[in-house]
Amino acid sequence: MNECKYLRFWCILGFIVSLYATYVEINLILNSQYKALCDLAPKISCTKAFASPYGKGFGLLNNIVSDSETSSSVWNPPNGIFGIVYYAVLYATANINHRSLRILQFICCILSNMMSIYLAYILYILDDICVVCLTIYLINFMCLWEMLRNEKSLWTRDFPFPKSKSSTKID
C-alpha cells in the first residue's frame, strides 16, 4: 500500500492542475479577453493553447463534432475534464492490488504519455509554451515512472506451480 504514495501524490497534483486548466478554459469560453495567471508572455500563454482547436477533445473530436455551436459542448469537452477524470480514477484505483487492473493502469499511463507527446508537438506547431500543459506532461511521465518503479509484478508471470520452499540439490 505504501509503495503507491508517490503515484497518489502525482495523481493529486495532476487533478489540481487539471482543475485549474478547466477553470481557465471555462473562463476563456465565457470571456475571450480572459488572461490567466499562466499567461506570462505572448509566446508563453496557456490561453493560446486552450483556445486552439486542440484545447478541446485533444483536437480529435473536432472532426466528429464539427459544428461550431457544439464544439464547446459536452460532446467536445476541454482537455482538463479528461485530466480530472483520469487522475481521479488512477488515484482511486492506486491501492487495488489486482494484476489485470495494474496492467490497465499501466496502459493508461502509456497512452497519457503518448497524448503528451502529441500535444507537445501541437504546442511546437502553435509556437507556444504552455506552462500548465508542460506541467501535465511532467505529471504524466512521473505517473508512468511510478508505475514502472512499483509494479515489478507486471513483468513477472506467476506459473501455476508454486515454488518449493526447500530446494533439493542433486549431485
UniProtKB/TrEMBL annotation:
Keyword field contains Transmembrane helix: yes
Keywords assigned: Disulfide bond, Endoplasmic reticulum, Membrane, Oxidoreductase, Quinone, Redox-active center, Transmembrane, Transmembrane helix
InterPro entries, A to Z: VKOR, VKOR_sf, VKORC1/VKORC1L1
Transmembrane regions listed in the UniProt entry: 7-30, 80-96, 103-123, 129-148
Residues spanning the signal sequence: none
Annotated GO MF terms: quinone binding; vitamin-K-epoxide reductase (warfarin-sensitive) activity
Keyword Phosphoprotein assigned: no
EC numbers, comma separated: 1.17.4.4
Predominant subcellular localization, coarse grouping: endoplasmic reticulum
GO annotations of cellular component type: endoplasmic reticulum membrane
Family recorded in the similarity comment: Belongs to the VKOR family.
Protein name as annotated: vitamin-K-epoxide reductase (warfarin-sensitive)
Native organism taxonomy: Eukaryota, Metazoa, Ecdysozoa, Arthropoda, Hexapoda
